[in-house]
Design a protein that fits this description.
Shape: globular
Low-confidence stretches: none
Largest sheet: 6 strands, antiparallel
Helix content: 10-25%
Strand order of the largest sheet: 3-2-4-10-7-8
Number of helices: 16
Distance between the termini: 72 Å
Strand content: 25-35%
Mean pLDDT: 96
Length: 846
């Protein structure tokens, strides 16, 4: 079949009220095009964000001219396809209107066959200011809708929060970790599609029944025919080929064919098995031998959200191919404020980092975007499950007919786009809206309801239900019924009364716990505030010095400087870090030291949380901390900063997400519990060695136990008497080291301190670093004659170490391996030489 595909390039742009055109990059945004043309300074540097709020108040115009071969004009149907327009756009071709767009999350296509001409064709996309487009909607509504993170004041709009009216990435309007850059632009590919025969628009391999014995599937094809057509449909995978004759009428129709695979190689997430994938080909074969072929790759798996009543309430856990899964991971936000700046390498760096950190799940949070295809391809490849939010967060939304219809189209498109990915584990309606509004309870939630009359409240909740209790669940059930729908996170359950809301700790649903951080509660509360699935919690830190110096000069290195405050979007963020640091850590000697100490503090908070969540399985069956990544250089909850550099948190998470870990914690009676937690599917037998060391060097006491850990379980290995183990030693000058060995290999080790780091005596250290002979400069032995806490190794070359921010026990060497970040194709991290190493410990920063 003579079908054609032509990507439109060669773009230029300008403000609509100006005359001069400038070269543009498509996909791209107005902001990035202005920056590349030298019209604005780096948006991320200093307080430039504040000076660039004028951009979203103007209309912008993009234009391209292109010439088609004569063969194009002979095709019976030609469409223009915009994979992504951000957001309010009018498209004309050769001066005639083609389409008007109002949703950045949808594909827009239109018939342009009658508008094309021989020779040059002129395509124009005019973007209306999102501000100008949506302010009238607010005025028409007559009252503001809650939009907690819309930084309207920064945008020069006072209290006019209009983000809720646009089907556009909510975080573009600002968040408590992100800047306000309300972008416009052509953010995904633009192309012409021409066809002379039927075209397969979608190939969906519906998984009707999947287990180890058999995969019963249905290949469902959405086919568009220009005219009546007869021929054969051929579907193949591996050596299996299925074929049937079909007749098509003009228009769009659905054709299905059943596929059965015996003893399939199932797709498993990280930790449970290999992420096996199958390739399916669908081919339309005409009577004249012409063909149209579509290929889709997917994994065969059975994923379920299990919510069963029990004595504590109801479970909230995932089962993959019948195996209960403890979800270990983080919340993902977009990797950049300017989405088109995120390269394939940056995506691979993030997903490979998740896998390196022992994660098996990421939550795509609802204030960002439905991610690019490559994100999900990588999650499929690395065995990372995805909790997928629809793009609604921390706001109430309008419910007029046009808005609801737009949401319905958006949902259909994105469910169909993503349902081929085995990584998709859950569709969730929104982030935190149910608990924020708390419809059935007067004095709970975020206090939004008190700002509205009874009539307004009724309308706002009815609009909420239209989206999250009607449109979205029906779309998931119709288009991807093998994946569960959860209407809001956090939530207890859809009961239609006050018991559905997760505004407090309960024995069912998922939980966002923010008592530590927002409410200044102590870290110890992580041990008691535990739900069935912890889908959000977090603690902030600064990036490392090299990252900070990319957005601030030396003169601004102070906690409350203008730039530090501009790059801290949480109102009391910097002060909260300091308050917690005063509680738990020694005083850093300067601001550079404060940066390091903030990372140590963050890592310790999240370590305590993760260990508590894992220690309480199967009651708790998931822990997703906030957050994986950053969209700009900033002080935030991220474990990996904007430049891809692992913070102390990421290394701590890597240790905390191992399949088998030790936890040591003080109980209410001051005795010390040592637990072993295993996510392995088979029992683990090993030896637990407990050693008490003087921080200046020297072993005081040692004890070894044989421990058996049942499959997928938590085992209390021993309980230690604090005073007996101290043996009269000064608790500020000793450390208890626990090591668990299996078959002579160390599986996990963990230091335990009898006093907080704030009280602890830090000896001055001299850490020796020796290259391992024959390693080619990739492996190093580190050793110290005295205790060295939170040893930070920094490299001249970008990359990661096998371990970092760890404690060196006197006389016990640690070997680390360096892997360089790979900026090319292939693996994210490759063996490499780190260049100059700098090794410091906490003693160097106080």
């Amino acid at each position: 079949m003579n079908n054609k595909h032509f990507v439109i390039s060669n773009w230029k742009f300008k403000a609509c009220d100006e005359m001069d055109w400038m070269p543009a990059q498509v996909p791209g945004t107005v902001h990035t095009d202005l920056f590349r043309n030298g019209c604005i300074a780096d948006p991320f540097y200093g307080i430039n964000e504040h000076e660039q709020q004028w951009i979203d108040k103007k209309d912008w115009e993009y234009e391209s001219t292109f010439e088609l071969e004569n063969a194009w004009l002979d095709l019976p149907a030609i469409e223009i396809v915009f994979e992504g327009l951000d957001t309010y756009a009018d498209v004309t071709l050769n001066g005639r209107h083609v389409l008007s767009a109002d949703n950045m999350f949808r594909v827009w296509r239109a018939d342009v066959k009658p508008l094309l001409r021989p020779g040059l064709n002129e395509l124009t996309v005019r973007f209306c200011s999102p501000i100008a487009e949506d302010l009238p909607k607010l005025e028409k509504l007559g009252y503001s809708l809650p939009a907690a993170n819309d930084q309207s004041e920064l945008g020069g709009l006072g209290d006019h929060r209009i983000s809720v009216f646009a089907r556009k990435a909510p975080y573009h309007y600002g968040w408590d970790w992100g800047p306000r850059f309300v972008t416009s632009g052509i953010w995904r590919e633009v192309r012409l599609e021409g066809c002379a025969g039927p075209v397969i628009r979608d190939l969906y391999i519906r998984q009707d029944r999947v287990n180890l014995e058999v995969a019963e599937l249905t290949a469902i094809l959405e086919i568009e025919a220009v005219e009546s057509w007869s021929g054969h449909l051929r579907v193949s995978t591996g050596e299996q080929v299925l074929e049937k004759g079909i007749t098509l009428e003009p228009g769009v129709q659905e054709v299905a064919i059943e596929v059965k695979i015996s003893e399939p190689a199932l797709w498993w997430c990280r930790g449970l098995g290999e992420p096996n994938m199958y390739e399916f080909n669908a081919e339309l074969v005409g009577e004249d031998g012409s063909t149209h072929v579509v290929t889709v790759t997917t994994g065969l798996r059975d994923i379920k959200l299990i919510r069963e009543k029990d004595e504590a309430g109801a479970s909230f856990r995932f089962e993959l191919n019948g195996i209960p899964l403890f979800a270990k991971g983080a919340n993902h936000i977009p990797n950049d404020s300017f989405l088109t700046e995120v390269t394939a390498e940056r995506y691979r760096h993030e997903i490979a980092s998740a896998a390196e950190s022992g994660m098996n799940m990421l939550r795509v949070w609802g204030g960002g975007i439905y991610e690019q295809d490559i994100f999900y391809d990588l999650c499929d490849e690395y065995g990372i499950l995805v909790w997928q939010d629809f793009m609604f967060a921390c706001s109430m939304y309008p419910g007029d007919e046009a808005f609801l219809m737009n949401v319905a189209f958006e949902a259909d498109h994105n469910i169909k786009r993503l349902r081929r990915h085995p990584c998709i584990a859950l569709w969730c309606g929104n982030n935190e809206i149910d608990s924020a509004w708390s419809n059935y309870v007067e004095n709970k939630g975020w206090g939004w309801k008190r700002n509205y009359t009874a009539e307004q409240r009724e309308q706002i909740w009815a609009d909420y239900e239209s989206v999250f209790h009607d449109i979205l669940p029906k779309a998931v059930a119709r288009l991807a019924a093998d994946v569960a729908y959860w209407s809001s996170s956090p939530m207890r359950g859809l009961t239609g009364d006050e018991n559905q809301h997760a505004f407090s700790l309960s024995g069912e649903g998922d939980i966002h716990y923010w008592g530590v951080w927002h409410a200044s509660e102590p870290f110890a509360n992580y041990n008691t505030h535990i739900g069935r699935f912890m889908s959000e919690y977090g603690f902030q830190s600064f990036p490392e010095l090299d990252s900070v110096l990319k957005y601030a000069p030396e003169s601004e290195l102070a906690l409350e400087s203008d730039i530090m405050m501009a790059h801290q979007k949480n109102g009391r963020g910097n002060q909260l870090i300091k308050e917690y640091m005063d509680m738990y850590l020694p005083v850093p000697k300067d601001f550079r030291s404060f940066l390091y100490m903030s990372q140590v503090l963050q890592a310790e908070a999240i370590r305590i949380a993760i260990e508590a969540h894992r220690r309480n399985k199967p009651y708790c069956m998931g822990t997703l901390y906030w957050q994986m990544n950053d969209c700009w250089p900033v002080a935030s909850w991220a474990g990996i900063d904007y430049y891809g550099r692992w913070k102390a948190l990421q290394y701590t998470v890597r240790r905390s997400f191992r399949d088998v870990i030790l936890t040591i914690y003080e109980m209410a009676d001051r005795s010390i519990a040592v637990n072993l937690i295993s996510d392995k599917r088979e029992r683990v037998m090993g030896s637990l060695c407990l050693s008490l060391y003087d921080i200046q060097g020297g072993l005081i006491k040692e004890e070894t136990l044989q421990v058996e850990v049942a499959a997928d379980s938590v085992t209390e290995a021993t309980v230690l008497n604090r005073e007996q183990w101290l043996q009269g030693c000064d608790p500020r000058q000793v450390v208890l080291q626990a090591m668990f060995h299996v078959d002579g290999n160390s599986v996990d080790s963990k230091p335990y301190y009898f006093v907080s780091a704030k009280e602890f005596v830090l000896p001055m250290t001299q850490i020796s670093v020796q290259e391992v002979s024959g390693s080619g400069g990739t492996r190093y032995n580190l050793q110290s004659s005295v205790l060295a806490r939170q040893v930070w190794i920094s490299a001249e070359v970008e990359g990661i170490f096998s371990d970092n921010y760890f404690d060196l026990i006197p006389g016990i060497p640690v070997t680390v391996e360096f892997r360089q970040r790979n900026n090319g194709e292939g693996e994210a991290f490759i063996p490499g030489n780190p260049g100059k190493l700098t090794v410091q410990s906490m003693a160097d920063f106080v």
